[in-house]
């Protein structure tokens, strides 16, 4: 019986079938993995987009994070105030970035459409809103305390009105919640530093020897003129009078003796008040008063420590907001008559 020997190109059907089945299994496996990745990855992607994408915050707003607030409390507050859509998402996002313990208390400005990630960054960077508190040159310590009472961003009380002339009036930047006493402390430190910087550079031969005396005279200069180009000349008038043993005869010292710095006099000085002796009335006492009559600004302190070199002994208002200075009593009387004429023309008595 003849037999035909097998050849190399005989179809191997069983082998090819196994390969096709294996290919189908790989395809199904890949498909399943893709589906699983979509199922698992879609929420993660959505969460990422929710944390980093723009929010619905319609306009710039502020948020105040109180001291001691933890991540959970902050997240709930942000959700309650409409700054994040989901407190849990915010908390998980902050934890994912490793910033759970880095959020800082304070008052912050949140831009419109800020993402959760941006809000997180703002709270981590910890740069809170700064509010300007302006204390004006020439305010008395009582007036400073009363002014601070009216500032809603400040907290607490000032138990004791600070000594007159120990505060440096200027604009101070504070965060919401700063105590009023802390502002007072900053004003005192600022004045001490200013004096330290200026004292050794003072002019020679001044008729006072202590910082306390310099501040008394600076407070008088501050109350006498608010014009920057006059302070050193006004200072020279008082320096010259002290050197000659003349009384200072400054009207603001009379007023301080009446009010003790607790608000303005609100009227003109009476003749009887000029003649009445108080420790501050420089029409009645020789030399300097015992204390400053206000808190002088830096310019007045500088003017007293480095006054202009003049021969002026008098000055009076000139009707323009400034003063007319005089070397002699005769010149001064002429300036006084001119000022009184201006007052009459303005209907003043």
UniProtKB/TrEMBL annotation:
Q: Which residues cross the membrane?
A: 26-48
Catalyzed reactions per annotation: a peptidoglycan chain = a peptidoglycan chain with N-acetyl-1,6-anhydromuramyl-[peptide] at the reducing end + a peptidoglycan chain with N-acetylglucosamine at the non-reducing end
First-level EC class: lyase
Which Gene3D superfamilies does its entry note? Classic Zinc Finger, Endolytic murein transglycosylase
**Which biological process annotations from GO are given for this protein?**
cell wall organization; peptidoglycan biosynthetic process
Q: Give its E.C. classification number.
A: 4.2.2.29
Compartment annotation: Cell inner membrane
Cite the InterPro entries for this sequence: MLTG-like (IPR003770)
Q: At which residues is there a site annotated Important for catalytic activity? A: 224
Q: Which GO terms describe its cellular component?
A: plasma membrane
Origin, by domain of life? Bacteria
Which keywords are on file for this protein?
Answer: Cell inner membrane, Cell membrane, Cell wall biogenesis/degradation, Lyase, Membrane, Transmembrane, Transmembrane helix
- List the Gene Ontology MF annotations in alphabetical order: lytic endotransglycosylase activity
Q: What membrane topology term does the record carry?
A: Single-pass membrane protein
Its biological function?
A: Functions as a peptidoglycan terminase that cleaves nascent peptidoglycan strands endolytically to terminate their elongation.
Q: Which NCBIfam families does the record cross-reference, listed alphabetically? A: endolytic transglycosylase MltG
Query: Family per UniProt?
Result: Belongs to the transglycosylase MltG family.
Descriptive protein name:
Endolytic murein transglycosylase
What is the protein's species of origin? Pyruvatibacter mobilis
């Amino acid at each position: 019986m003849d037999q035909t020997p097998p050849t190399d190109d005989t179809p191997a059907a069983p082998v090819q079938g196994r390969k096709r089945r294996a290919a189908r299994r790989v395809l199904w496996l890949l498909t399943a993995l893709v589906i699983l990745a979509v199922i698992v990855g879609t929420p993660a992607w959505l969460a990422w987009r929710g944390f980093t994408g723009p929010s619905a915050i319609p306009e710039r707003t502020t948020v105040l994070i109180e001291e001691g607030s933890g991540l959970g409390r902050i997240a709930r507050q942000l959700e309650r105030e409409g700054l994040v859509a989901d407190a849990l998402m915010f908390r998980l996002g902050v934890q994912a970035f490793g910033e759970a313990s880095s959020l800082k208390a304070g008052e912050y400005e949140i831009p419109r459409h800020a993402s959760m990630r941006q809000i997180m960054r703002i709270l981590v960077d910890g740069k809170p809103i700064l509010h300007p508190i302006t204390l004006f040159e020439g305010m008395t310590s009582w007036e400073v305390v009363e002014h601070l009472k009216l500032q809603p961003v400040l907290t607490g009380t000032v138990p004791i009105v600070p000594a007159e002339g120990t505060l440096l009036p200027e604009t101070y930047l504070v965060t919401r919640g700063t105590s009023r006493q802390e502002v007072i402390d900053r004003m005192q430190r600022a004045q001490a530093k200013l004096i330290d910087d200026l004292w050794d550079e003072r002019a020679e031969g001044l008729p006072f020897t202590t910082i306390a005396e310099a501040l008394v005279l600076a407070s008088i200069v501050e109350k006498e003129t608010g014009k920057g180009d006059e302070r050193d000349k006004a200072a020279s008038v008082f320096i010259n009078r002290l050197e000659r043993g003349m009384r200072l005869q400054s009207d603001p010292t009379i007023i301080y003796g009446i009010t003790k710095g607790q608000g303005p006099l609100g009227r003109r000085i009476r003749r009887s008040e000029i003649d009445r002796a108080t420790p501050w009335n420089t029409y009645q006492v020789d030399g300097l008063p015992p204390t400053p009559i206000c808190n002088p600004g830096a310019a007045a302190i500088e003017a007293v420590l480095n006054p202009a070199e003049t021969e002026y002994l008098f000055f009076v208002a000139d009707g323009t907001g400034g003063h007319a200075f005089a070397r002699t009593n005769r010149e001064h009387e002429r300036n006084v008559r001119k000022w009184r004429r201006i007052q009459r023309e303005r209907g003043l008595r």
